[in-house]
């Protein structure tokens, strides 16, 4: 067991007893005696925070911590700031976030088995920075992220040079094609590439694009690295 102090920002909010868990060497960590929370996570609308962290960080439970026993207090005395944070996390399905460089520890509020009044219990999960919020956004929106493959199944990307190569290749095929339907398809594809090339040239030359009669100003880029990306027809 390790005695630690919990801070919210630079303000001390309570003392805790911490028990290391799992394979992480928490006892030797330089931060173990000062748990510095800097924010609460967004609320989880569909799943308990514990379920989310169990899913995205299997085996990442690194410690359990509980507020230290305190002398009996009067019923009308307000709870400590640590207990208030614990109550808010339980009520709103939030976690308390403790940043650690490229990682972060999420303190998940748990209902203590002892059911003592003014008592706080948290489980600490270490995950890559931003992973929890990314998963939470997808869960709350009921929308999964898509990773596109690179063979242009759904989207197609072109530079000025690749537009020219594609148009040239199509024109060579067109000169040998005799089927009217295929010729019509090739002409439509060439026209689409030419229009997209013109749009990309606008972007390269003037840092702006006119599409559908509307001007879109864009940030300047290094010459010859600009790419136009659109959904495949």
From TrEMBL:
It catalyses: O-phospho-L-seryl-[protein] + H2O = L-seryl-[protein] + phosphate; O-phospho-L-threonyl-[protein] + H2O = L-threonyl-[protein] + phosphate. GO terms for cellular component: nucleus. It comes from the Eukaryota. Its EC number is 3.1.3.16. It is an enzyme of class 3 (hydrolase). It is found in: Nucleus. Keywords: Hydrolase, Nucleus. One of its GO terms (molecular function) is RNA polymerase II CTD heptapeptide repeat phosphatase activity. This is protein-serine/threonine phosphatase. It comes from Aegilops tauschii subsp. strangulata (Goatgrass).
């Amino acid at each position: 067991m390790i005695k630690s102090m919990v801070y919210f920002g630079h303000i001390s909010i309570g003392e805790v007893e911490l028990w290391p868990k799992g394979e992480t060497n928490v006892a030797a960590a330089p931060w173990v005696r000062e748990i510095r929370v800097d924010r609460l996570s967004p609320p989880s609308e569909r799943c308990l925070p514990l379920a989310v962290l169990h899913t995205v960080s299997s085996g990442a439970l690194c410690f359990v911590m509980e507020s230290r026993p305190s002398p009996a207090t009067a019923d009308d005395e307000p709870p400590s700031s640590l207990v208030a944070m614990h109550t808010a996390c339980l009520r709103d399905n939030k976690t308390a976030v403790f940043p650690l460089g490229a990682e972060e520890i999420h303190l998940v509020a748990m209902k203590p088995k002892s059911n003592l009044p003014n008592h706080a219990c948290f489980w600490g999960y270490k995950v890559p920075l931003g992973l929890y919020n990314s998963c939470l956004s997808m869960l709350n929106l009921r929308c999964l992220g898509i990773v596109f493959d690179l063979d242009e199944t759904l989207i197609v990307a072109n530079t000025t040079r690749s537009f020219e190569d594609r148009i040239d290749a199509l024109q060579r095929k067109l000169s040998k094609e005799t089927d009217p339907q295929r010729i019509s398809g090739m002409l439509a594809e060439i026209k689409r590439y030419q229009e997209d090339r013109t749009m990309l040239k606008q972007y390269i030359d003037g840092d702006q694009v006119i599409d559908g009669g509307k001007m879109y100003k864009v940030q300047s880029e290094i010459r010859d690295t600009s790419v136009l990306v659109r959904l495949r027809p």
